[in-house]
Design a protein that fits this description.
Blueprint lengths: L10 E2 L8 H14 L7 H14 L3 E5 L2 H11 L6 E4 L5 H8 L4 E4 L14 H4 L4 E7 L8 H11 L2 E5 L21 E5 L12 E5 L2 H11 L3 E3 L2 E2 L10 H32 L5 E5 L8 E5 L1 H4 L3 H10 L2 E2 L24 H9 E4 L7 H15 L5
Parallel strand pairs: 1-13, 3-4, 3-5, 5-6, 6-7
Antiparallel strand pairs: 2-8, 7-8, 9-10, 11-12, 12-14
Helix pairs in contact: 1-8, 2-8, 3-4, 3-7, 8-12
Bound molecules: ligand T4K.
The site of ligand T4K has 23 residues, from helix 3 and helix 4.
Length: about 375
């Protein structure tokens, strides 16, 4: 087979979906007419309801990004114990949300299949100073929330989930499975997500009092004109961002359908390649399409494949490498030293481009490059 031709323009791992400009402008006109730009205005309130309906359980508050929402979530727990058990296989935001509050992350290795924190290893990492567990639903695949809930009850721990990747076709929680939410679950609405508000996020909690606390934290702790209660920050989503969210909500199902189409094309073309496993994207979770490359069986490493794709203008990404436990300031922690499953995963994962605007022909071309590379193709 001849060498594949490079793409004329870079094909990125993600591309934000955008509503028709006229529709967004229509919403902006209504903002201009009201002169309300932020502080929980009408667009914000409508979006909060819309996201809440889509989530289908718990109480939803909107935030200006996922990271500040997560920070607020951990802060709202008011932990008396200073350590939090966390996965190393996540975006840095997860672990920073612990450390920025002066708490200490305790890394626990991941499960080799789901790539989420391994509940069977949590108990041995506990000591009397651990007060909470923070798990990430990696690529939209849920942590073993039932097992984590059982450990949390047994040891009187709080549970927060980084659900940055879970807002999609399926409601992230099922009402008869409350353990799915933990105490609080975060969603990210960043531009690179399948649903976005440019920058944005949300928190979901089943508990009315926790929801009230979170809303206070979101607005500097301000109760009313005369009273401020507790610490807070500015976590509010503006009207301009909420307007984008309302437009995106209308087109979310179409975006998901298109992604499912692209993902099935990849699955068709890539299944059966020796040493290549599809770990996300092939099962209806279409936030990311992620491969895992076993270098011995595949015949070359993940990094080699990544470089080949890059040289042909396909900008794949190694989410999540490096591990959070391998970078400063976390790499000197005792718990960062022995995480073999996470380390292997970080060496093997590769996210291919996945977004609604990616044509099926381009998906086929990308899959062909992977297959050609595996067969020993050299540029
Ligand atoms: N927890 C987890 C598990 C997360 O994955 C994230 C964020 C968070 C917490 C924090 O949530 P937020 O505070 O962000 O709401 C990107 C995103 O910026 C980040 O939100 C996301 N996770 C992470 C997995 O991916 P980078 O550093 O890879 O972004 P960047 O700029 O390299 O974008 C990736 C590609 O997307 C680019 O190559 C081009 C394309 N792109 C990007 C942007 C921003 C566009 O086409 N248009 C755009 O506007 O982090």
């Amino acid at each position: 087979m001849n060498s594949p031709l490079p793409f004329e323009r870079p094909v990125y791992v993600s591309r934000p979906a955008l509503p028709p400009l006229t529709e967004y402008v229509r919403r902006l006109e209504s903002i201009w007419a009201s002169n309300i730009l932020t502080n929980m205005g009408p667009m914000h309130e409508m979006l909060e309801l819309g996201v809440g309906e889509r989530v289908g359980a718990g109480r939803v508050s909107l935030w200006n990004n996922g990271m500040s929402a997560l920070l607020a979530a951990v802060s709202s727990l008011q932990l008396q114990r200073r350590k939090v058990v966390v996965t190393p296989f996540t975006f840095p935001a997860t672990v920073h949300a612990i450390s920025l509050l002066g708490l200490e992350p305790v890394f626990v290795d991941i499960d080799d299949d789901s790539l989420t924190i391994d509940p069977s290893l949590i108990e041995e990492a506990l000591d009397p100073e651990v007060g909470a567990i923070l798990g990430t639903h990696v690529y939209g695949r849920f942590c073993d929330t039932r097992a984590i809930d059982a450990i949390a009850r047994e040891h009187d721990l709080r549970v927060v989930y980084d659900g940055a990747h879970i807002f999609g076709r399926y409601a992230p929680v099922v009402t008869d499975e409350p353990h799915r939410l933990g105490d609080i679950t975060m969603l990210s609405f960043h531009a690179t997500k399948l649903f976005h508000t440019v920058e944005g996020g949300a928190l979901i909690t089943a508990d009315q009092e926790t929801d009230r606390q979170l809303r206070l934290i979101r607005n500097f702790g301000i109760v009313n004109e005369h009273d401020v209660k507790g610490l807070g920050l500015n976590g509010k989503m503006s009207e301009v961002h909420a307007a984008m969210g309302l437009s995106m909500l209308d087109m979310m199902d179409a975006e998901i359908d298109q992604r499912v189409g692209v993902a099935s094309r990849y699955v068709e073309a890539l299944s059966g390649i020796p040493g290549l496993r599809i770990v996300a994207g092939g099962d209806g979770t279409v936030q990311y399409f992620v491969l895992r490359i076993d270098a011995d069986q595949f015949g070359s490493s993940r990094d080699d494949l990544h470089n080949t794709l890059r040289s042909l203008n396909v900008i794949s990404r190694k989410y999540f490498s490096p591990l959070c436990s391998d970078v400063e300031p976390y790499n000197t922690l005792p718990s960062a030293q022995n995480l073999p499953v996470a380390r292997k995963a970080a060496e093997e994962v590769l996210a291919l481009p996945l977004y609604g605007g990616l044509s099926l022909e381009d998906a086929d071309r990308i899959a062909e490059i992977v297959s050609w590379h595996q067969k020993g193709g050299i540029l």
